[in-house]
Amino acid sequence: MTTESGDAPEDRQTISDRHADTAAEVVPDQLGLYIGGEWVESASGETFETRDPTTGDVLAELQAGNADDVDRAVTAAQTAFDEEWKQTGPAKRQKLLETIADRISANREAFAQLETLDNGKPINEARADVYLAAEHFRYFAGVTRSLEGETVPSDGPRQIQTVHEPFGVVGQIIPWNFPLLMASWKLAPALAAGNTIVLKPAEETPLTALKLMAEIDDVLPDGVVNVVTGFGPDAGEPLTKHSGVHKLAFTGSTEIGKQVMKNAADRVADVTLELGGKSPLVIFPDANLKKAVAITNIAIFYNTGECCTAGSRLFVHKDIAEEFLEQLTETAESLTIGDPLLDDTRMGPKVSTEQVERTLSYVEKARDAGATILTGGAAPEDDALEAGSFVSPTLITNIDHDHEAVQEEIFGPVLEVFEWDDYDEMMALANDVDYGLAAGVVTDDLTKANKAARDLEAGTVWVNQYNDFPDGMPFGGYKQSGIGRERARETVYHYTQTKSIDISLR
Ligand code: ADP
């Protein structure tokens, strides 16, 4: 592993100074709750801090929202829906979504730097997120105009037509791994469909959602989007229980997703859930090794492994396993790990010290069970990174597929590798987890690729690539990875309810 970015070795002070200078430029001045178009304090007066995971320093103090704040935000969203948004037609909504996209693009670098400070992701990956977030608004700006109903053929003297109407107020809860991008995945389709929103960002990474509100304050009518920052149980849970919220969309852990669904069930509110994953990546014996290693690298080390789609269980054919593992280990050890604000950095810190502990505890359990840690499994040995939440790229072999480190989502740069010989046995193992979010296949044999893609129990299967997210391609989970599909035309329908109008022609 390389821990030096650029020409000269970094020291702790250099990194700390760079982060402090960047924070002074890009951390927004307005950091209240954003309710009804106003920046307000939390009802309790309580605040919390968000930290820079590279330096451990406090980045900003935020308002800690609670049930009273959620209630205020829902009221503001309902008022905005009734008084203005309900009458705002698709052409107008399209233009507004395009303007939001333009505002994101116009502030591209500041958004990227802010995301890197708050989340720790490498600046180039943050830039990619910002680009994708803007494109997502553009995609749904287009979809806004295609929300057509149907005329239903029927015997008898009647005319049946359907219209797709918004729910009104929707509640959206997002995680910390792609803060701005997840906000765009939630906001864009909900707005396209004509809803108003109360959004709760993750407590670890609230800054880019607030910056987005600051940038679009003059774009949307007051109260159309409201943001309540705060902790899950205090600000998230009341949103899931609020009787004025008719649709919930949640991205996060399966454990909390189940609670969200239970709370929604109590009042029969609609839910979209995008939850955890433990995705398999299958390498066939004919695979080009260099390509297979590059794809694996993207599958498990992109965003420091903090992707719900992370290809974290790898099944490599035994004929090529030795050479593949040699090359993969070499790649993992040569990834530049360091200050994520530097262009050369390929892996930054994890989002928090808690997440480091969680990741390393799984590695420990694997080690205790006799697994081989081929590389990594600890923080990098580099004084300059000591204050940050870093974990080295980790490869594990000789581990039982039933082990909890294999069955559970680690959400870090940790890959478990299995060798296979018999296709059916391999596929049975590949599918032997509770999750089914994504999967990958690497082979130049089209028949094998297609068969594997059909056999894999996953909402998305990537062939000869991984973590590709073109707008319009539905994304969501099989099994306990979720309900509903995001990012696609069908998503906008998840934010509407169908009304049938049956007119007698007698
Ligand atoms: P992670 O463990 O990766 O942080 P979580 O599922 O806990 O994932 O968090 C995802 C989002 O859900 C965050 O915005 C968090 O604040 C929120 N959250 C956590 N607990 C709850 C809860 N009980 N009800 C609603 N939202 C919650």
Topology:
Elements: H1 12-26, E1 33-35, E2 38-40, E3 47-51, E4 58-63, H2 67-83, H3 90-106, H4 108-119, H5 123-143, E5 151-152, E6 158-166, E7 169-173, H6 179-192, E8 196-200, H7 207-216, E9 225-227, H8 232-241, E10 247-251, H9 254-266, E11 270-274, E12 279-283, H10 289-301, E13 311-317, H11 318-334, H12 353-368, E14 372-375, E15 394-397, H13 404-407, E16 414-420, H14 423-430, E17 435-436, E18 438-442, H15 446-455, E19 460-463, E20 478-479, E21 482-483, H16 489-494, E22 496-504
Parallel strand pairs: 7-8, 7-10, 8-9, 10-11, 12-13, 12-18, 13-16, 15-16, 18-19
Antiparallel strand pairs: 1-2, 3-4, 5-6, 6-22, 11-21, 14-15, 17-20
Adenosine-5'-diphosphate (ADP) binds at residues 173-175, 200, 202-203, 231-233, 236-237, 240, 252-253, 256, 259-260.
Please give a structural write-up.
The chain is an alpha/beta fold. It has 2 domains: 281 residues, 3-Layer(aba) Sandwich (Aldehyde Dehydrogenase, Chain A, domain 1); 191 residues, 3-Layer(aba) Sandwich (Aldehyde Dehydrogenase, Chain A, domain 2), CATH 3.40.309. The protein has a 7-stranded mixed beta sheet, with helices on both faces. Strands 9-8-7-10-11-21 form a 6-stranded mixed beta sheet, sandwiched between helices. A 3-stranded antiparallel beta sheet has the order 5-6-22. It starts with 11 loop residues before the first helix and ends with a strand. The relative contact order is 0.15. The mean pLDDT is 97. It binds adenosine-5'-diphosphate (ADP). Adenosine-5'-diphosphate binds next to helix 8 and helix 9.
